[in-house]
Amino acid sequence: MNDLDALLTPEGRALLDEVRDTDPARELAVATKLRRTHPADLVSAALGQARLRQRAVAKFGAEDAGRMFFTPNGVEQSTRASVAAYRARRFGELGVASVADLCCGIGGDAIALARAGIRVLAVDRDPAAVAAARANAEALGLAELIEVREADVTEVDTGAYDAVFVDPARRGGRGRIFDPEAYAPPLSWAVGAARTASVAAALKVAPGIPHEAVPEEAEAEWISDGGDVKEAVLWFGTDPGAVRATLLPGPRTLRSRRLPDPPVRPPGRYLYEPDGAVVRAHLVAEVAEAVGGGLLDATIAYVTADAPHPTPYATAYEITDVLPFNVKKLKALLRERGVGTLTVKKRGSAVEPEELRRKVKPQGPRAATVFLTRVAGAPAMLIGGPVG
Length: 388
Hints:
This protein is of the alpha/beta class. It is 34% helix and 27% strand.
């Protein structure tokens, strides 16, 4: 907090502007020069904040990241702006005018909600996160819509708000936490808080949450952005028991129709790699039906079909070769075809892509993709390339 307080002074803000584009490789030289005219602690704080802002560009974009204030944990754990904006739109579509944002961190979701015209109470027990969230609301001109409060979220009365959003901590001293009851606060508490909301609620959880841990009255949504799975959200007050996968940008949403598992069939000319959110949501059957295909193996989320059927929910590849797994045969085939750019994808294989590349030593002007997987239980290699 002291670092942030210092950076919010006129001297601190001026120093932040001066160091904003500092190359990390030149930090020592820049720090040495600036310490001749500024306090050493302030210089260190400014350079540290500049580093965090540079890292935050990937999540918040250059314009916002260049004005916001971050903590190391805040950069790592905050919601990507595109995902937060999508969720805020959903809240708005549900008629929500006010949200209690519990475990708000540096305020990424609060910012998106406020930009959607929603009044926000942003609460966190971490003083540094609260200071950053308050500074960010001011920096982005949203202070009139965002009230930031330092408190234990389990002790906050949310009755005056239409909706509740909870983003519990899912990292501990040993890294990621996989047991939802080990979240801080636990998922059971968050579900209880969601049930008190008058209009709607959303709980952000890890994408790997077991489906059986989803309450019956909740809608479960898995979200990916640019092909990367970002989170799962449990919605209350929407469509109880529904399951969906949402792909950003778009958004494009695939909803579960409770289809039976697709049949296992021999490899066809095309292979479809479902988006990670589709896989996490257990909606591979919906993709298989859409493309008229089946599975290469009952336990692996690769769909095969005989004809191309464009779908936003899977990437299509045209397959030229299907072989039992054999490094020597793969090396010979790639040499014969002049493949120098090799993309390695795998599901159901213990082979590491970089290890395989080292062994086959691809050389030549052409490109190819090899899938390391199983076909009806047997290790196999499928070679081809993206459709289109």
